[in-house]
Structure formats: C-alpha cells, structure tokens
Amino acid sequence: MIVKNLHYAESHEWLKVDGNNAYVGITDFAQETLGAIVFIDLPKIGDTFEQGEAFGAVESVKSASDIYLPVSGKIIEVNTRLTDEPALINDDPFGSWIVKIELTHPEQVNALLDSDAYEAFIK
C-alpha cells in the first residue's frame, strides 16, 4: 500500500508536511520487509538531525534497522504509544507516525519522491 499526497525517501520513510512541521513514519514496504516489530528506539524532543541522518531504530523478530530523517529538522513530538505498542507500525504504518519535526530546510521536501515515483522505486 502506498498513500498519495505524501513524500517518500528511498530509505523507506514517509513524510507528511503540515505547514512548517511534518510527520515521519516508515512505509508499508519497510514494515513488511522487517516483519513483526517488537521494539522502537525513539529520539528525544529537541534533538536535531540533518537530512538522511538516523534518528532512531526499529527492531523486529527478523532484524534491526535504522530510521532516517527524510529532511533536516528538530524533533518536536514523538509518538510514545509506540514504546508500549511498537506493532502499531505493522498494523497501520501510515497512521502510526514516529516523530513530528519542525522543518529546518523546507526546500528539501522537493527532492523526495512522490507516491508514483516511490511505487516505481520499490518494484
């Protein structure tokens, strides 16, 4: 499943822009590849990351994988529900955002893939 009107990174994160902020999560393709997610390592509010920098990690029964920020930003909110219920990402990867960021370089969004380009990328 791929959701229209989102931006995608080749590292399989999605980005939903909301003004000068954005929500970040991992794609359905990513969660399916990982398998049952059992743990998520979340950043702290106030942490800043550059585009492409790992901001956390997900662990599944199969493996562990870093999660990368598709654009530069400052963490302004984390989805703490995922600490107790990491499998929410498996159940609803596009409804289970991981972090909310304040965009520090909004123009970087333009370099991300749209839904059609991401769909072609994962085929």
Secondary-structure blueprint:
Blueprint lengths: L6 E2 L4 E6 L2 E6 L1 H7 L2 E5 L6 E2 L4 E7 L3 E5 L4 E6 L2 H4 L3 H4 L7 E5 L11 H8 L1
Antiparallel strand pairs: 1-2, 2-3, 3-9, 4-6, 5-8, 6-7, 8-9
Give me the number of helical elements. Answer: 4
Shape: globular
Low-confidence stretches: none
Which class best fits the helix and strand makeup?
alpha+beta
The averaged pLDDT comes out at 97
Distance, first to last CA:
12 Å
Estimate percent helicity. 10-25%
Give a short account of the largest sheet.
6 strands, antiparallel
Query: What series of H and E elements makes up the topology?
Result: EEEHEEEEEHHEH
- How much of the sequence is in beta strands? 35-45%
- Strand arrangement, largest sheet? 1-2-3-9-8-5
Could you characterize what this model shows?
It is a single chain. The protein is α+β, with helices and mostly antiparallel strands. Helices cover 19% and strands 36% of the residues. It contains 4 helices and 9 strands. It has helices spanning 28-34, 81-84, 88-91, 115-122, and strands at residues 7-8, 13-18, 21-26, 37-41, 48-49, 54-60, 64-68, 73-78, 99-103. Strands 1-2-3-9-8-5 form a 6-stranded antiparallel β-sheet. Strands 4-6-7 form a 3-stranded antiparallel β-sheet. The protein is globular and about 35 Å long. The mean pLDDT is 97.
Keywords:
single chain; alpha+beta; six-stranded antiparallel sheet; three-stranded antiparallel sheet; 4 helices; 36% strand; globular
Short synopsis of the structure:
With 123 residues, this protein is an alpha+beta fold. It is 19% helix and 36% strand.
